[in-house]
Amino acid sequence: MNTVTITPFLNAVHRGQVVALWNAVFGYDAAHNAPGLVIDGKIAVDDGLFFVALAGAEIVGTVMAGFDGHRGWIYSLAVSPSHRREGIGSRLVMQAERALAERGCMKINLQIIEGKERVASFYSALGYSIEKRVSMGKRIPENIPVG
């Protein structure tokens, strides 16, 4: 087994493997979640909150975080099925938490997609708890590519 390292995302080096991993793990069906679009948006923000886990040259995990000056968010935590239960997901979350804490973040939120509730125990083990909230969203169609 290769040693796994966590490093900042580099578009020219990591993009293709991240897209493949996200398609395999998340199986996106909404245009606004297309991996290339998400990556482009994160690169445009250029906040240093996108990390990959590498086993040699192979990307085996990802995490993105966001910070608005008050709350932090964790997004796109993915670990290759062949590398699960090796602590990679926990290490990625801890990397995102450290980066958010360095920016002054006081609270970190994340969302679990309906039907994927089984991952709640993973996050609970890392100190997260279910909060009574209603999550709402609104798509802006003119900003979502067609096709």
Describe the protein's architecture and organization.
The chain has helices spanning 11-26, 35-45, 88-102, 120-125; strands at 4-8, 50-55, 58-67, 71-79, 107-110. The protein has 147 residues and is α+β, with helices and mostly antiparallel strands. The protein has one domain (4-134): Gcn5-related N-acetyltransferase (GNAT) (Aminopeptidase), CATH 3.40.630. The chain has a five-stranded mixed beta sheet with strand order 1-2-3-4-5. Helix 1 packs across helix 2 (35-45). The relative contact order is 0.16.
Which properties best describe this structure?
five-stranded mixed beta sheet; 5 strands; 147 residues; alpha+beta; 4 helices; Aminopeptidase; 23% strand
Could you tell me the radius of gyration in angstroms?
15 Å
Class in CATH? Alpha Beta
Tell me which CATH architecture applies here. Answer: 3-Layer(aba) Sandwich
Strand order of the largest sheet: 1-2-3-4-5
Mean pLDDT: 91
Regarding quaternary structure, what we see is single chain
> CATH H level: which superfamily?
Gcn5-related N-acetyltransferase (GNAT)
- Main sheet overview: 5 strands, mixed
- Poorly predicted runs are none
Sequence of secondary-structure elements: EHHEEEHEH
Task: Tell me the β content.
Answer: 15-25%
> Which structural class do you get from the secondary structure elements?
alpha+beta
Whole-number total of structural domains: 1
Number of helices: 4
Q: If you consult CATH, what is the topology?
A: Aminopeptidase
Helix percentage range: 25-40%
Shape: globular
C-alpha end-to-end distance: 40 Å
How many E-type strands?
5
